[in-house]
Amino acid sequence: MICKRYVIPFFLAPWLLTGCMEDFNPDVHEEPVAVLNTLVCADSTLWAQVSRSWMLSDPLPDPILSDVEVSYAVNGGAWLPMAYNPERRRYEAGYVAREGDRVEVSAATRYGVVSASASVPRGVVIDSVSSASAVIVDYNSIIAVDEGQFVYGKTLRVYYRVTISDTPGERDYYMVGGNVMMVDPVVDVNDSELDWISSASGFCIFTDRLFDGSSYTLSLQSDHSLTWVYPDRRYVDEIVVCRITADYYRYLASLYKKYGTLRSDLEYYGFMEPVAVFSNVSGGVGIAAGENGVARSFDITKLVVDAASGL
Amino acid sequence: MRRTVVALVLLWAAVLVMARPVTVHVSDCPADRVFADIIRQTGMNFIYPSGLLSGMRVTLDVDRAPLSDVLGRMFRSTDIDFRIKGRNVTLFRRPAPADVVVGGYVLEDSTGEALPGALVADLATRRATMTNAAGFFSLRLPPSSTRLAASFPGYVADTVVVAPSHRRVVGFSLREAPGENMLAEVVVTAPRPGSTLDTEADVGHVSVTSDDIRHTPVVFGENDVVKTLQLTAGVLPGMEGFAGMYVHGGGADENLYMLDNVPLYQVSHFGGLFSAFNTEAVRNADFYKSSFPARYSGRLSGILDVRTRDGSSSRRSGSFRLGLTSGAFAMNGPIRDGRTTYSVALRRSWFDVLSVPALAIVNALQEDDTDKPALRYDFSDINLKLVHRPDSLGRIHAMFYYGEDYLKLGYTNDINDADRETPYIRNISDIARMHWGNVVGSLGWRRQLSGSLFGEFTAAVSHHFSRLRYDYSESVYAGEGHMAGQISRSRSSHSVTDFVLRADMSLSLPASHRLEAGVDATWHLFKPHDYRSEWEGYGSAAGARRWLSRSRAFEGAVYVGDRFGIGRSLSVDAGLNLGVYITSGHTFLNLDPRVSAAWSLRPGIVLKGAYSRMRQYVRQLSESSISLPTDRWVPAAGGFRPLTSDKISLELDFDFLSAWRFRIGGYWKWMRNLIDYRPDHYLVPPDAPWTDMLCAGSGRARGVDLTAAWHRGPLSLRLVWSLLWADRRFPDLNGGRRFPAKYDNRHKITMLAVWQLNSRCDISAAWTGMTGNRVTFAVQDYLPLSATNMFFLGGDGMGNYAVDLVGGINNYRLPFYHRLDIAANLRTRHGMWTFSLYNAYCNMNVVGVVKDRGYGQWSDGRVEGARYRRLRLVPVIPSVSYTWFF
Questions:
Q1: Same domain? B429 vs B489
Q2: ipTM of this model?
Q3: pTM of the model
């Protein structure tokens, strides 16, 4: 939020107004650490990215490791190799993951052997998805058409309701993606007061803590500018709801805490203890994540065109 | 009949013996030779302890006088007595007359304010004591007439002749000594401080007066007691310019701040830039960091006991000060006959006086659809005190303190084009308001209950609060006269409320014992988290949520301590503090020993040692290294035991060449049951117990402190060097490995000079240098999971994303820190100008390190602009203020 621009500079105003930055060499040498990232998705081929950590002063900046032995095993089966794909800069296997698979990945690098595992969670049960309403709003939109001429731009905001059913008795983790945004946050990440000043209108990850075992309706919205609308173009809203693994949830939550909140600025300048991004990789860092999602698409071309033509 | 005759015969014989005349004509003759002659004359046997007559010489001229008369005259001016029984004469030393306790007070002559820590000494027996925080003292003296002397630095000493058998209450009124250096002690006819004052069994005790505070050069010229203490040995300031206090490797929340015997929680304004103690209201402060009297408990590292002015009983006076950041007003004086006095001190920042109207003008000139900032900050505090003196031995007071900070920030953005065919109206408001502070009210009664018994009784309420209110609203014209929109509101607060009852007694006992005992009861009401949010808008369902956590705790203590001397060279202060802490489901009973001793090896050289065990039942949770209003106080609960520390200290005080005074001390401190945030505390749901966010560990600190002070005439110098090692170990942090504490500053050096140029002008300069603070510096980066980039990572706009690889906690040490501060006070006819230069040679110290990831493309293998950068802050800051006295 805009407030974020003021809070930190306010508390540091007497100093920031007079501060300066200078380059330096920290004169600290740390050995690079092997990094393993993989996302196991239902109905998708397996892949893994292997890289290494680096210092800013590193003369070899490209961290991707393309020459290591990477192997995988599914459900405790035999270890099979993965091949490097130079276009996508990652290792891939021909295996298509299914719900319930437990995948292990291992890479032998010159910085050590790293390994991690992730499971493909159960799919999300979506009871219903509906477009609840659409409203024309003015959303930060004065647009200069010509010198001295202004048009008040308008936005079509489309609201959706997505009802999901949760499995009782176990903790489930969810993620919402696509081009929609949550406006009814099911907040689970513990926010301090500072975080609430700056949070966006919703998180995109949440747990079933508040609706374990029952149904819950998410409120989502998408915004489409009505200033320039092209009738021959298709306008599609895509809503993706995923169930994710606990480790993936922790990873995303730690990223949010570190980079998406008010404390980020304080941490950047060293006034707060830095958050360590979650890792479940042994022998190194990174994340082995699992995800199983379902997508729904809504063609709102007519809605957009009609709204624009009515202006 | 026969028995009667025998008794009469014996009585006649005794009478004959007693009545046998003795003739003695001697002059300055050894007593044993006189006795030999008397034995020859009387045939009596003299029985007495060897050495009783050693060195005694007799001058006597009697002729045929009874033996009893002769002996009476011989021993008249001595403490030797005799008893005649039959043919035996027994000589013995008369028992010393019982001491008499003399009590009283030492006050400032012009205002009637108490002078705590003043020295009161008997010039004959060399017995001495110091006044307590209320200015009272009690001293055991022989019943014979003697001269008592009272002295205090900066004041003219006073002496009175006292006959303790007739006069048990003595009052001193000391006049200020103009032109005297405020750091120098006034030499009095009392015994040398090295043999009396320095033998007090306090290790690491520092007394601070309001003059000491005014002579400390500080940023913006805002003097305060905490920044004065930052220049003493063993105390680290933490973040540059902020009023932090890290004592002997402890944390900022491990210090107990007391205002007239009542604990305070929020002791700073503006993130710690200014302390909550208004210098105009402060009379004196006592700071303990090594040995702790038994009456104190509740914190591990330091105790700061601040006492405020009672008000002058003779005349009304006051001051008005205006500086670059704040203004202050103070006034005190008598009410009616002077037995009741008042003291008022107000302080308020004045940024908003200019900023608010200026911002309003700027915003009014802005065009539509422009963010108009809303910004306002101010702090204020008020100290009120009413004191009634029913007689010269007692005082009743009512005290009120209110200190607050208020911050409003955000923006609005409006479009109001109602002239169009279809009106175009849109309003956005995004405002946050923070309000935090302390409210304290107390009633107290202190009285010299008898010559040997002093009591102080306190009842108080202390409330610390912090509130955050956030409002977001967006409304647009939706046609047909209607506005549509959405709102989002959240209210967050946390608070601590204490109800306090205290009774402290001090009793002077024979054989130089001074017993201190008391009881302390505090009922805590904690509200660590009270959060409410509401939202509704445009087509989405309205919603609300509330999270509330509360807890109660009782903290009590009974203590007893005894200060006594062994011989003439050893002083001991031994005590016990029995503490109880009751919270939901848990009761902790703790017995904490405190012992300290001072051994005067020879005049001017004193060796001291101490051991203390301290407990802490409350903790301030903070993720930042600056004091933020969102830092919350929580009780030890949920399976976490009270914080505990054990500390041993040794100290050697000695004078050198009559002008130098040295103090060298060493200490070792062990801390247990420390708590801190878990690494994944952000995953704990907001309605879960807050204790789920915490983990426990231990810490240790050890070091050496050296202080050298010198004064001659108007010039005083003080040099301080502190050496420190401090570390922590938490099983859940840093992989369970031990790591350095954040303020593990290996060396700290301060040099303070105060020069009283003349009666109108004084200059002070302080140079501070210390090893840099420690920070956790993630030197390396690594690539995240690519699918997450769009959500959380801003990247550099060129498609490059990276995540910090956090290594060890506090793994990097910032460069050596140093600065010079200079201040000058120039007294005018009606007031005083204060000029100060903070960081006089403009050494902008490094306060943080950052990683600038630069720009570039991975695909071509080049990353340009990536670099490490150091943040330097705080240039030279001049300031000026004027104080008008009336």
A1: yes
A2: 0.88
A3: 0.81
